[in-house]
Specification:
Helices cover 24% and strands 39% of the residues. The two termini are 25 Å apart. The N terminus is likely disordered.
Amino acid sequence: MSTSGSRMEPELENKTKAVGMAVGRLIGFEAEPAGNGRSVVTLEAGSQHANPMGTLHGGILCDIADAAMGIAFASTLEADESFTTLELKINFFRPVWEARLKAEGKVVRRGSSVGYIECEVTDEQGKLVAKAASTCLVLRGEAAKGR
């Protein structure tokens, strides 16, 4: 893995907390401190997250994986950089009703303009629930303003 910094720039870290936590509050997930292209997001999944069949809605798994991967990638950015997601893919391996889930995001490759990130979502027994991957585009200059 190639990363440009050892931890998230303070300005981006504050922005991530302020903006990113709105969706975290809505869904109920929490993000642990991130750095070096890694992050962890946790969620107490329950009936409030259920799909019509009664199991955890796949979109919720996608949300926590996306958050973990985005935070991990953000930890590799310089102060004048931002990013946007180009692609996101997720595979679901087992149903969940109620569980403490952990989404661990890891930057696999950080190039100068594109990055590839993976995430494993596990339950409290360490069983793999889902695996996701994302491709992100680094933005600089005018493209990074306001992001």
